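JOB MANIFEST
job_type = single_chain_structure
chain_count = 1
residues = 115
[input]
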Amino acid sequence: MSLIIAWIVNALSLLALAWIMPAVQVASFGTALVAALVLGLLNAIIRPVLLVLTLPVNVLTLGLFTFVINGFLFWLAANFLEGFTVRSFGWAILAAIVYSLISWALSALLPGRRA
């Protein structure tokens, strides 16, 4: 049940992100649900591989390259899905940061959940 709640929170975070940032567009709640699922899968499968492959760059930048990886995955999901768009790669990096902050804040508001 908590997995479904986290999925819905992430979809709501995407809708809030589209409302806050004009460079991100989400067509509907259904699109947000699919985008949240795809982002979750990309973060679970591809992100660990990218983090290991870019470990030297990540160490040199003191971990800041992780923002680029998160932005890339956000941009990849937007290019893969119909109805979910991001204006450019730079906006995708910023959108990934804001998306994670919104998702964290919404998760912290839920009763019985740790932030």
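[summary]
The first strand starts at residue 24 and ends at 26.
The first helix runs from residue 2 to 20.
exit_status = 0
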